[in-house]
Inverse folding.
């Protein structure tokens, strides 16, 4: 029998005491494993959300949301400012407009419905005049026109195919930088008007040629038109105006810097939002929970170390005479320490196995419990005005409301016990055993056999 | 040959310096059975601790086979205890969760005996001291005082030490058992040529040893 096997045997020499120590260790290691699993799962979700957040920043004129609100579109100078900002790799500028029956020979593919009727109820009563492009119903002075029917949205953009995001059923994309009278037609609108590639239609008294027919998974977009930005600016007398700019930043690390810079240069003239910014809002609650889980890990590891430390101190003090005798008959400090460390390791490993088994079982419910509490806090911290806000007609929104998205983010978290988590748990367990044995080892080294034997 | 010269051990206490051993000198031949008598606190246990390298003297020398053990490093002291010294204690001091056999094998392990030879040697030693059969596998708690002391003697003999230091070896035993243990030690000193130094209160036993020393207030006299 060597010191290691003697240590293992000694660990179980008092079943009641060993059981109590193992039980306490198992509880702390259960907590440790649960917190490790919860933290790893939450961190995975945080990384996933951040990784999918992208590097786009959306800049819209202040006070304008889709076709609602009021204010001035962004000017060409402001667009240039955005484009020239450090770390901005490219921009997509967009101007949107709506075509009434008198502006085009196309028939709208959308029905007004109760929503559309409500949105247009002011148009027929309004006594205000607005600058408009010339049409059959208005004079060259730009007096008001009455728009009673459903409208067709036309979007002027520098990237008509949405950087490859459009799916063409026929034809091909157009050059967004040109001033040509060409258009991409949504599949629903094309079907309604029996248009195909090469056909022509009229818009603001200009004849446009259909170059492509596209489809998306959005009925609103499939009922619209896309033309080059400059063309729309020209035919609507809005030279240089844009209603939305999407800036692509060279790296996600620079998104916050670019936003800060744009907020400084555009001041209150624009609203600036980014996916990263919204993603950070979403994950901030998760980061708090991950922090809480880390505190749990440290606390559980500390508790485990203290349990084994106190248990081993108690055991060593109780067996001072035995240690003295072993030293008297020729046992070295190293062999005695090996024996007691092996004893501590045995208790820790048995407690660890029990704790691991329970921890893996309860880590799912524990993670859910942590996340649910975090979700309640996060939801209650959301500003009421931001929850479920209107998407806006034609507004290029890529996100749901923050509240709804946080809910979804929380729901998507599932606890998974990975090999890395297990390795970390086992590593911490061994660390607990070593820390727990260090002080008793010091006690052992300082036991003088002559004093112990004399005190009998 | 054990030769002690001018051995002094003092301790610092609240009352000042306490002299446990005062300039003690004596020598013991190989195979001699020596007893030391003295009242409680006379320095008997201190002398045994110094002879067993469990403690270091304040001054003086302890020569064992021409080596001064008072000047050994801690590591060499441990090796000295394992190979040249055997301890027999009044309270036996066996490891309670090891069997009689394992207690003897433990001493063999510390003496550097290869693992494969330990069991056979331990059985032989236990047979020699009269612990046989199923008793060998009993834990100390299941053995009588005399049997435990026999195991303790077998453990002390494990590595064929030059000297056995016995601290009140019969102090915890009835007179009949005590006599048997004394006879066993006496026999060993003759058959194994082992030097035995025994501390005792029992003057009858002391009278049967080769020589008796008396310790009084830290000073040694031959009785």
């Amino acid at each position: 029998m060597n010191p290691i096997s003697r240590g293992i045997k000694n660990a179980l020499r008092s079943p009641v005491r060993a059981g109590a120590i193992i039980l306490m260790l198992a509880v702390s290691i259960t907590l440790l494993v649960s917190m490790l699993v919860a933290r790893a799962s939450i961190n995975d979700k945080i990384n996933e959300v951040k990784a999918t957040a992208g590097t786009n920043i959306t800049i819209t004129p202040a006070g304008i949301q889709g076709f609602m609100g009021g204010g001035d579109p962004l000017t060409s100078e402001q667009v240039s400012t955005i484009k020239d900002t450090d770390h901005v790799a490219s921009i997509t500028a967009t101007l949107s407009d709506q075509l009434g029956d008198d502006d085009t020979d196309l028939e709208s593919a959308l029905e007004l419905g109760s929503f559309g009727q409500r949105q247009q109820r002011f148009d027929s009563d309004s006594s205000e005049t607005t600058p408009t492009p010339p049409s059959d119903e208005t004079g060259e002075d730009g007096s008001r026109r009455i728009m009673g029917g459903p409208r067709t949205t036309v979007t002027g953009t520098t990237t008509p195919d949405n950087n490859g995001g459009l799916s063409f059923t026929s034809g091909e994309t157009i050059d967004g930088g040109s001033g040509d009278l060409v258009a991409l037609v949504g599949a629903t609108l094309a079907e309604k008007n029996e248009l195909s590639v090469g056909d022509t239609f009229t818009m603001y008294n200009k004849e446009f040629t259909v170059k492509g027919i596209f489809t998306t998974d959005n009925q609103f977009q499939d009922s619209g038109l896309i033309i080059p930005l400059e063309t729309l600016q020209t035919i609507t007398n809005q030279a240089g105006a844009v209603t939305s700019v999407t800036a692509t930043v060279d790296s996600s690390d620079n998104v916050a810097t670019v936003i800060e810079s744009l907020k400084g240069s555009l001041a209150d003239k624009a609203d600036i939002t980014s996916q990263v910014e919204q993603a950070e809002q979403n994950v901030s609650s998760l980061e708090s929970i991950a922090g809480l889980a880390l505190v749990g890990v440290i606390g559980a590891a500390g508790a485990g170390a203290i349990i084994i430390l106190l248990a081993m101190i108690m055991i060593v003090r109780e067996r001072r005479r035995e240690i003295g005798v072993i030293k008297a008959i020729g046992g070295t400090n190293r062999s005695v320490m090996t024996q007691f460390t092996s004893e501590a390791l045995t208790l820790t490993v048995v407690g660890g196995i029990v704790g691991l088994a329970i921890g893996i079982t309860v880590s799912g419910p524990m993670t859910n419990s942590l996340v649910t509490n975090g979700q309640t806090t996060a939801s209650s911290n959301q500003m009421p005005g931001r929850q479920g806000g209107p998407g806006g007609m034609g507004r290029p929104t890529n996100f749901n409301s923050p509240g709804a998205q946080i809910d979804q983010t929380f729901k998507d978290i599932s606890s998974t016990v990975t090999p890395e988590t297990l390795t970390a748990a086992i590593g911490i367990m061994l660390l607990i055993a070593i820390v727990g044995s260090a002080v008793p080892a010091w006690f052992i080294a300082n036991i003088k056999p002559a004093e112990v034997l004399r005190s009998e | 040959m054990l030769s002690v010269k001018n051995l002094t051990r003092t301790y610092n206490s609240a009352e000042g310096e306490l002299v446990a051993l005062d300039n003690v000198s004596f020598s013991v031949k190989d195979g001699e059975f020596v007893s030391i008598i003295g009242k409680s606190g006379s320095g008997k246990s201190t002398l045994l601790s110094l002879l067993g390298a469990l403690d270091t003297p304040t001054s003086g020398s302890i020569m064992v086979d021409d080596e001064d053990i008072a000047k050994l490093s801690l590591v060499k002291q441990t090796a000295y205890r394992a190979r040249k010294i055997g301890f027999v204690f009044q309270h036996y001091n066996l490891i309670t969760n090891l069997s009689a056999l394992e207690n003897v094998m433990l001493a063999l392990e510390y003496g550097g005996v290869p693992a494969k030879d330990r069991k056979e040697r331990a059985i032989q030693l236990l047979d020699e001291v009269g612990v046989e059969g199923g008793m060998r596998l009993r834990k100390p708690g299941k053995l009588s005082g005399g049997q435990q002391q026999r195991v303790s003697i077998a453990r002390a003999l494990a590595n064929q030490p030059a000297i056995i230091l016995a601290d009140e070896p019969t102090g915890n035993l009835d007179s009949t058992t005590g006599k048997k243990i004394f006879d066993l030690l006496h026999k060993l000193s003759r058959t194994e040529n082992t030097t035995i130094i025994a501390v005792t209160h029992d003057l009858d036993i002391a009278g049967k040893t080769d020589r008796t020393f008396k310790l009084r207030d830290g000073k040694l006299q031959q009785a």
